[in-house]
Structures are given as structure tokens and as C-alpha cells.
Amino acid sequence: MTGRFSALLRELRRQAGMTQEQLAERSGVGVRTIRGFETGERTDPRTMTVQLLADALALRPSQRDELLAATIHAQPAAPSGPVPRQLPAPPGAFVGRDRELDALTAALDDAAAEGAPVVVSAIGGGGGVGKTWLALHWAHQQLAEFPDGQLFADLRGFSPHSEPLPTGTAVRGFLDGLGVEPGRVPVDLPAQAALYRSLVAGRRMLILLDNAADAEQVVPLLPGGDSCAVVITSRRTLTGLIARHGARQLPLGMLSAQEAHALLAYRVGADRVAAEPAAVAELVALCGGLPLALGIIAGRANIHPRVPLAEFAAELREIGLEALEDEDPSASLPAALSWSYRSLTADQQVMFGLLALAPGADISPPAAASLIGLPLPQARTLLLALEQASLLSRDRDGRYLMHDLIRRYATGMAGRQLSAEVREDALRRVVDFYLHTAHLADRLLDPHRPPVQLDQPAPGCVPDQLADYAAALAWFDAEHLCLLAAQGAATTRGWHQAVWNLAWTLGTFQDRRGRRHDRLAVWRAGLAAAQHLPDPTTRTRAHRVLGYAYTEVGQHDEATGHLSQSLSLAVEQHDRTNQAHTHRLLAHAWEQRGDDQRALEHATRGLELYRALDNPVWEADALNQVGWHAAQAGDHDRARGHCQAALALHRTHDNPDGEAYALDTLGHIAHRTGQHQQAVDLHRQSLALFRELGDTIEAANTLDRLGHPHLALGQRDQARAVWQEALELYRAQQRHDDADSTRRKLDALDDPPGE
């Protein structure tokens, strides 16, 4: 029976001048499979596999047809008995999912080439994400690959009407479909499963197991041998099936905005969708790519064709999940979520509700541990359970996210199931987690910065223990948005000290990463909180840093206004430290306004005050600032002397941040005095330190300055390289004026020398 296909494949391969290994490499079909076909050991060449071989052999149409025809004679004899066709009808409205469909087909082809059964267990995802639709759509596309029939069972793992389907009931349904007379069905489940496996052995069949509760429910339904394909859908990640049976995982996410738009157009009508683009965009955003939510909206829009889509969008925006309820539980998003919720343990339900209350769009496991007040290993176990139940997703960095509609459901459940005290304590713990970890991270970034005094964290809060500078910077990068959200939550609840302390601990990071507008926002909140705090120095410092924040965004009147208020308060309180700090920031503010003389006066007064405070690092910073402004005024000898003294102090007291600034200023002075090679060397030393510190703002500034001495030395290529890098940083930092200035310098490099 197999001779014709085997002989023809061998002959066509020889005509093409290919070895079996070469054909395997070009076609993607395993070399063992090709050997099996040519020797007759393999008797089930699938149509798609033969197409791959034909493409690799570059067959003419007549040869391709002959090879395909030969596959008919390569198949084993058709089994006796009925051919089951149990698949439900395919979904009428199906869009997108091209990547997932390709992945299912690739799994089928790979398994055929390897001689193994296909088990795709994790068409996994939350309720309403479209798992069954995807499985059915793909299955109906592949009917030709399964000529011996298809078996289907709804395992009711998450059903509103009943408990999960007993495995024995599913097996008996398959035996009925395979034509087994009731009298021949064994009594016990193992014998029933053995008979089922015997009947499907050697048959090319598809078994679709929908809505599985767990791996144990599925295992007795798996066929033996390598002729069948099994596709399973479940809200849970069936890790046991993956580990023990080599099942492939295919997580199903939300539809993209484009796919969601296409689904609405398909269901509601392209003309109606095109007539209300703003309403459709809002519906797509509010539904967040969840097919069930989009389907419910589309169904209601079809029932009420004269109602504008904007009304459905307004309803969903204003009342949330209640707008997606339906009398039919299978078409109700709250009902679908409730089935998943009821399957959780008590601790998992508490974690689910608290995660909805956590500040920020995502959360790390250590923050979640403090949120619930449990040790990290227990918190990780709960998070993993919620992920496996498809109520959470995890990104590549290990952070957990909750879909907006699921978060709304979880918020409602938290309000009904958790007391106000439990919710408040959890939020206090997670805010303290962010505050205390940020305080530690800030100390690692700048150990010379004056710290704030914090109360002990709330019981059950365990801050992250960060090891070094790099870990602190990475933590701030990952948690910055959550820190902003934590300050917002503290503001809402009137936790004024936490609001002010969070603003302070974010300072170094926001400075080095150029988060200018974020700094302005947190210090607006910080100043408002300071009005409620008993310590008057908090208001002095808040006005000072808020003035600096306004300087950095170019709002000069507001900047000097707040700085002047800070100076007045510091003078009233006889606070020389804050007077010195404020003079230093006033120098910077007046420089930004173009008044170099006034800037030099404030810098000089700041230096006098710092010297009286006996703090060598602060004195060094002030020396460098005076040096910078003296250089701007043309007094290069004074400038050089002050900056050299600053550099020596910073190195003595191990302050690489201040050292980088001093080197940069000395490089600027060297260039201004014609010592261009020395300027290049000094700027490059400064640049190395800024890069090591992760200070992308000052790295961009130094790169910009470095181009000038390169150009003065005739090194146009080097000037172009550093200005190009500065331009990319300026653009990333949205510093548009600096970017435009650097772009003009790069354009000028294309002019002939001397022009």
C-alpha cells in the first residue's frame, strides 16, 4: 500500500540531487520522518507535509499532483464504523488571531514530522477571551487533515449551570460517537478509556476538549499513538499536562485595537462603525480587547439599530461592568468572571480583591506580599494561582497585570467581601512598601543627600532589600509609575507625611532620568501636604524643590516665586542650610533666565553659607557652581581654581556625582581657553561617570559640550558622533529646544570647513 508514495518520493529527491538531510533542512520536515516515508515505515503523510516537501523539491505542477495523489495509497485502510462529526458550528464572527492560528497549525505540522500526538493544552485565558471560538475556527479550517472524524466535549470546567463534567461521562460520549453499542461499554472508567484509545488508534482524528477544569479531568481523554491531534481550552494553565504529556502552551491574550475595531465592524456593520469613529474608539478602549465584552455591546447595538453607538459607550463608561450583564450567563461578562472567582480559595479571593486596590497598573511580587501582609513565598503562590486562573497576566519582567474590566470586577468584590479596615490596612502596607524601598534606593543613588526620617513601616510590610547602585536604579525604573500612583493614593487619604516623603525620595532618580514634569507633579502634591505638617522646614524645602521643578520646565516666574518664598521662610527660621540650598537653586534659575551676573551673586552667597556649615560635599558643589558662573562671565582663572578645588573635595569624599560635574565644568573652561585636547579628555572622564551613574540628562549635556573641542581640533567625525548621540538622548527626553540646537550643529558640519 505504501510502495507508490515511497518510491516516488525517493525518485523525486534523487532527480533534485538532494540527500535526505538536505531535503529535511530545506523543507523543515524532520529527517527521520523523510526516512520513514521512503522506507514505508511512516504511512500517514499529511497534505501540508507533502506540500512542504514539494516546495523544497521545486516540483512542477504535474509532479506535485502525482505526489499528492500517491498519498491516498499511502494511508492505512479506513476504519470500520461511523465517522464522528461532533464539532459544533464554527463562530460566525471571527477576526484576527493570525499568530495563534499559525501556532496551532505549526504544532500540528511539527508533531506530524516528529511522529508524536499533538496536544495544545493552553489555549488558555480568562473568561470571554475567545478560547472556544479560536479552537472551533481553527478546527473547521483543518477538517481535511482529520478524515476519520472529530470528537468534541464541553468539560464544563467553569459552568454557570453545573459542576465540571465527569470524565467518565465524556468518555462514554466519545464511545457513543465511535459507534460502540451500550452493551459493549465496560463498567469502570479505566476500561472505558482503554477501549476509547483502542478505537482511535491509527485514525487521523481531532479531539477538541473545551473548558477543562484541570489536568486530571483531561488525562483519561488523551489518545495513544501519533495519529490524533488534541486541542484543549481552559481558563487554567494546565501545568501538569504540559509537564507530564508534553502539551504545548498557547496563551490567548486580548484582541488588538485593530482587531477589536474589525470585530465591531463585522458584527454591527461597517457603515455604522464608520459613522461614529470617536464612539467606536472609546468602546474599543473600554472593552480592552475582550471579545465577550465587544460581543455584548455589538449584540445590544444590533437589537437597537437606531441608538447611537455613543450611548453604549457612555453607558459602559459610567456604570462599568453592569453594562455588560445579561440574563443569559454565557453572554454576561460579570457572570463569566464570577465562575472563575468561585473556583478560588479564600486566600486567593482576598489577594484578587486587594490587587484591584493596589496603586499602579501592575505590581511586583514583593509589593504584592506587603499588600496582603504575607511572606513573599506565600504571596508568589497566590499570584501564580491567579495567573493560572487567567485572572492575572505576567509580563516578561515578572510583574503582574490585571485587565481593566477584571479590575472593575475585583474592586466590586473587594468592596463586598473585605471590610474597610482590611482594605485600608492593605493600602497602608503597600504605600509603606513603596516609600521605605524608595528611601533605601535614594540613599544608594546619592548617599550624600540629606535623608528624611521615616516612621516604622506598617506591620506586615517588608520593603525590598536592594544591594547596590545598579539595583536601586533598576528598581526606580521599574516602579516609578507605581510610586506616582502610591503618592496619589496617599494624597486621596490625607496621609500627608507619606505624600511629602515620597516626593523627597523620588528626587535623585527623577533628576538623573530627566523626569521633569513628573517632579513638578509630585512636588505640587508635596507642597500641598506640607501645609498640613507641623514641621515648618517641610514647607521651606517644598517651596525650594518646587521652584527647581518649575525652572526645569521653563516656567521662570513660578520658579523664582517659589524659590524666593523658600528663602524668606529659611531666613525667618534662621535656617542657614536651607538658605544655602535655595541660593544655589536661585543661581540656576537666574542662569536659565539669561542673567549670569545675578546667577553668580546667588552662587557666591551660597558658597559662603556652605563653608559655614562645615559640609565638604556641599561646599564642593557650591565651588563648582561658582566656577561655572565665573566661566560664563569670562573670569576663567577664578573659574578654574574653584572647580579644581571642587574636584579635589569630591574625590576625597568619594562623591562621583559631584566629580562628574566638576570634570565637565573644567572641560568647558579648557575649551573656552583654547586647550581643546584637554577639554576632550576632561569631558570624556565626566561622561564616563555620568553614564555609570545612569544620569542620562547630564550625559546628553556633556556629549553636546564635547562636540565643540572635537570640532576645534578638526575632528569632524568625532564631533558628528557625539552630537548625534546627544540628539538621540535629547529627543528621548523630549528636550525639544536642545534637540533643535544640536540638529543645527549637525547640519552645519555638512558645510565646507571655514564656512
Commentary on this structure:
The protein is mainly α and 755 residues long. It has 37 helices and 8 strands. The strands form 2 sheets. Strands 2-3-4-1-5 form a 5-stranded parallel sheet, with helices on both faces. A 3-stranded antiparallel sheet has the order 6-8-7. Helix 10 links the parallel strand 3 and strand 4. Helix 8 (167-177) packs parallel to helix 9, helix 28 runs antiparallel to helix 29 (576-592) and helix 33 runs antiparallel to helix 34. The N and C termini lie far apart (85 Å).
Mean pLDDT: 88
Low-pLDDT windows of residues: none
Number of helices: 37
Major sheet summary line: 5 strands, parallel
As a percent range, the share of strand residues is: under 5%
User: Would you report the number of β strands?
Assistant: 8
Strands of the biggest beta sheet: in what spatial order? Answer: 2-3-4-1-5
> Helix proportion of residues, in percent?
55-70%
The Rg value, from CA coordinates, equals 35 Å
In one word, what is the shape?
elongated
Give the N-to-C terminal Cα separation: 85 Å
| SS-based class | mainly alpha
